[in-house]
Amino acid sequence: MVCTCHRCRMRCCPSSMLHLLRCVRSRSCIRRGRNRLPLWIRETWCYMRLLLQSLYFNSLTDSDVVFDSVFEPVFWTVDYVTRWFGTVFVCLVVILTSSIVVIAYVVLLPLVLNTYSPAWIAWHVCYGHWNLIMIAFHYYKAAKTSPGYPPTEKNDTPFVSVCKKCIMAKPARTHHCGICNRCILKMDHHCPWLNNCVGHFNHRYFFSFCLFMTLGCVYCSISGRNLFLDAYNAIETNYQTSAPPYTFKDKMINKSIIYMWVLTSTVGVALGALTIWHAVLISRGETSIERHINGKETERMAKWGKVYRNPFNYGRLNNWKIFLGVEKRSHWVTRVLLPSGHTPYGDGLTWDIFPVKKDLIPV
């Protein structure tokens, strides 16, 4: 009977499962004399139990693996939608930004030239155009620059793990992006407004775009506050009283000013909060993903009475100099306050650990 059962299992199951099946069979044979179920039902039941155990039995299984497995369909749907709507989000950014620029040139600039003093006119013209150039430059570079990918050929680059999606070696600070469907060097996140991942080679462009876009929105919101109040009161007065009717041009000018102020104020608050959050992460030498990982490591080591230290935190000033690529004092102007396409520090594959006693980039 044992030989018959063994041959039956050889026909039903792959050879890779024979060892596990023998274990299941040996455990069930003790109770086989008292089991009155037909043989084919017992064999099917044992086989289904084995399949079920093979799905969740793993020495590395934890709550994160279970969570990822359960919500895999949700993650796949979000990644799929984000991938296909990335172009729509980019077009939306270009359209909204262009609408503000058109209003600034068509509506606000004539008012500035007619009402402000020469000193204020020079300030608004110079600052406005500098801010616009910085926004356009950094957005284009952030969207078009590759974030950086680990090599696909065999090489001597050190790695810390193997990606379970790409089945490729992952250097330190490298993570897999489900939307791009590949690993990204020093990945921070996938930005749908760029339709691109934010990684080692375009992280500075992304942060600079957020910073200068926030400054531009705050500038428009503050400088246009009185114009917004006048336009809003004019429309409300025209609706509630029998004041002389406005022309179509006057209505469009007032509505354009209101649209510009509401949009820039809203974006300034939301994007400003995001910019401050990323500035805090840069000061700590972390990315958005590493913030989550380091938090879990801190809790894990605290249970053992130890203190976790981020190996990529070189000190606040050093972190900013490395991130911005500042190698001498003049770079604070030429590489931070002016458009610059210089590459970041390092190749994104290897990283120095704890350079505490020396300045990585002395300035």
Give structural notes.
The protein is mainly alpha-helical and 363 residues long. The chain has a domain at 96-147 and 202-337. It contains twelve helices and six strands. The strands form three sheets. Strands 1-2 form a two-stranded antiparallel ribbon. Helix 8 runs antiparallel to helix 9. The longest helix is centred in the first third of the chain and has 44 residues, at 72-115.
Give me a quick take on this structure:
With about 375 residues, this protein is mostly helical. Helix content is about 60%, strand content about 5%. Strands 1-2 form a two-stranded antiparallel ribbon. The chain has a two-stranded antiparallel sheet with strand order 3-4. Strands 5-6 form a two-stranded antiparallel sheet.
Key phrases:
PFA4/ZDH16/20/ERF2-like; mainly alpha; two-stranded antiparallel sheet; membrane; transmembrane helix; 363 residues; 12 helices; globular; disordered N terminus
